[in-house]
Amino acid sequence: MRTQWSPSAAPVTPLSPLHPDDRHPCALGPMDPLRRSPSPCTSRPPSPRTPPCEMLGHVGIEAVLEQLKIKAMKMGFEFNIMVVGQSGLGKSTMVNTLFKSKMWKSTLPGLGVPMPQTLQLQSVTHIIEENSVKLKLTVTDTPGFGDQINNDKCWDPILGYINGQYERYLQEEILITRQRHIPDTRVHCCVYFVPPTGHCLRPLDIEFLQRLCRTVNVVPVIARADSLTIEEREAFRRRIQHDLRAHCIEVYPQKCFDEDISDRILNSKIRDRIPFAVVGADQEHLVNGRCVLGRKTKWGIIEVENMAHCEFPLLRDLLIRSHLQDLKDITHNVHYENYRVFRLNQSHALPRGPGWVNLAPAPADLTATPGPWKVRWQAHDSSDEEC
Amino acid sequence: MAVAVGRPSNEELRNLSLSGHVGFDSLPDQLVNKSTSQGFCFNILCVGETGIGKSTLMDTLFNTKFESDPATHNEPGVRLKARSYELQESNVRLKLTIVDTVGFGDQINKDDSYKPIVEYIDAQFEAYLQEELKIKRSLFNYHDTRIHACLYFIAPTGHSLKSLDLVTMKKLDSKVNIIPIIAKADTIAKNELHKFKSKIMSELVSNGVQIYQFPTDEETVAEINATMSVHLPFAVVGSTEEVKIGNKMAKARQYPWGVVQVENENHCDFVKLREMLIRVNMEDLREQTHSRHYELYRRCKLEEMGFKDTDPDSKPFSLQETYEAKRNEFLGELQKKEEEMRQMFVMRVKEKEAELKEAEKELHEKFDLLKRTHQEEKKKVEDKKKELEEEVNNFQKKKAAAQLLQSQAQQSGAQQTKKDKDKKKHE
């Protein structure tokens, strides 16, 4: 269930103080009244079709939401985001704008910073706090992506990194003595910057997106959108959407994970506008007496937070204000589970005991992608999927 | 292509200050919305003697009438009966499972009373563990049946804990969150109650029983939890009947000498129990079950199966060797069993063959015998036939001879008469 998603910049009005639990989703005790319990244990209580009971008065069950909130706020949240794109597309600036702080020192082109000869991933972690909500944010940058003359397999290090994080989590999870809270370093969202050519997706973009959308949630954006007019943007967007459909690339929010009709309506609106045409800026200027973030050019000031100028607010709302938890959930429940199935199946040479399988040693080549999604939400196996 | 990842260690994490409103303070709400749409699970185990008021207390706690018929006292052993209900309050859906111990404390020999309870709790952990260890698992959809809270009903004797209580609680304290309560507390007077409570707590401590500690590490709940802990074990009264008190209807029990109000804090600790169990600590109970009791079970189970994280040389992949060894062991056993089965099969086949051969031989003999008998009979019949024919022939001959004689006699007679006639004529 998503909160109201509207393109305006108004923050989500919080409900009465509630305390989510940001650990294993299994601790949340999910419930599906229609699920048949497959366990052979005869002493398990019957789970499906439990009779709904009328309560004659207030019991206080809804206080559990509050308890959930307290616990989660105490534990803090984690979010890992990766930005991928060629140099000069404004990735670092975008990150700074998104989180309104100097995450990176944005590199100005041609100022003596040598172009990296190989693709290097750089991560930086910060703890940011807002209204007593603590967020441990990790941003991974990929300078050098797509900058070489021969860009063949330039996605391999990125895939390797993402799978490496899954591997780390998996190793922690299969320990006998586990930590109470496994540190989550898995990439929850990958923002892919498409250069504003105005034509269509380049072969490099298509190759990369095809491989990555099966492993991680990918949100493509049109970078430096201030070089396109509004009509050009729309045309570009339509062509990109067409390309994505033609190559069966499912970007976030994926159609097959919509849980119910309200989700579907909400996400369809988002899917209509993907990829967002964004502009990043971390300098403030004075416009009509207000201080706004924007880029100052000779012909005007492009306001980053103005919906008429660019779609940055949409991106920010999607990533942070409404779908952050959903990004994490899909990463944990779908992408991570796929990776886990893939790894456990690799050990198929060893027979499966009563349920516990030993992991084969981690493959040297972590770039193998598990293949098309095998894990889907239980209730939606019959939903309409496009590919 | 070389990949260098620059990752700062934990000490280098800096707190960054934001220069504007980013908006992730809606995160708790996002999380809660997700949880609300998924719903919550809560499983309570009620352990207590028959007739101590378990069902009534559940009805009172959750303000509903859970249909159930009271159990008899004739149960041969302890068995657990689980029922699930779906409750909804405003936008929160709760899947409540209440597990009852039927027949607890009724047997003459109560040595094994605790065993079905421990087995049940372990079975729920096992089911969850199996799901977690599956290759294709769906934990987010899983109906969690692990017991989150165990309400242990202590009989209101006024003296001390029974030894059955101590033994059972000792067996359960490492597997589940135990909350001891004194049932039917309206039978104890106030001063006796105080002595009873302190006696129970001291007995629990001296026997090393670890009951559930209400968490006091978060400032919001620390105070209320601390004050409530003093009143453990809660002395509760349950009632679903309403009595008019003043100008309102309230849940109460009516006696000739007065009315015991369930929700009056002076009369009993029911309100405290409800606060602690549901309104303040439900989430903590679930978390403790998952992170402490379940992890303990999991660790023990996996170690029992022979897995270790590191062997004496701290090589993390020694698991593989352990597993290889186990695998060979299993295979060897399997082969042995296969051999045994094959041998048994061959033996059986041989036996059957021998039997059949015997039977065949017998049949042959019978057949021969019959044939001979048949032959003999046939011969006899033939002989008899011959004899008969001979007789017939003889008879025919005799008949023919007789006829001849007769005709001759007739002729001679005729001739004689003729002669006589002639003679007469001549005279």
UniProtKB/TrEMBL annotation, chain A:
Organism: Equus caballus
CDD domains membership: CDC_Septin
Record field: transmembrane: none
Keyword Hydrolase: no
Protein name as catalogued: Septin 12
GO biological process, one term: cell division
Occurrences of domain Septin-type G (ranges): 75-346
Keywords: Cell cycle, Cell division, Cytoplasm, Cytoskeleton, GTP-binding, Nucleotide-binding
Family per similarity comment: Belongs to the TRAFAC class TrmE-Era-EngA-EngB-Septin-like GTPase superfamily. Septin GTPase family.
From TrEMBL, chain B:
GO molecular function: GTP binding
Compositionally biased tracts (Low complexity): 401-416
Primary location recorded for the protein, binned into one broad class: other
Annotated compartments: Cell projection; Cytoplasm, Cytoskeleton
UniProt entry keywords in alphabetical sequence: Cell projection, Cytoplasm, Cytoskeleton, GTP-binding, Nucleotide-binding
SUPFAM superfamilies per the UniProt record, alphabetical: P-loop containing nucleoside triphosphate hydrolases
Septin-type G domain: residues covered: 38-304
Matches recorded under PROSITE patterns: G_SEPTIN
Tagged with keyword Cytoplasm: yes
Pfam family, one: Septin
Quaternary structure annotation from Swiss-Prot or TrEMBL: Septins polymerize into heterooligomeric protein complexes that form filaments.
The protein, known as: Septin
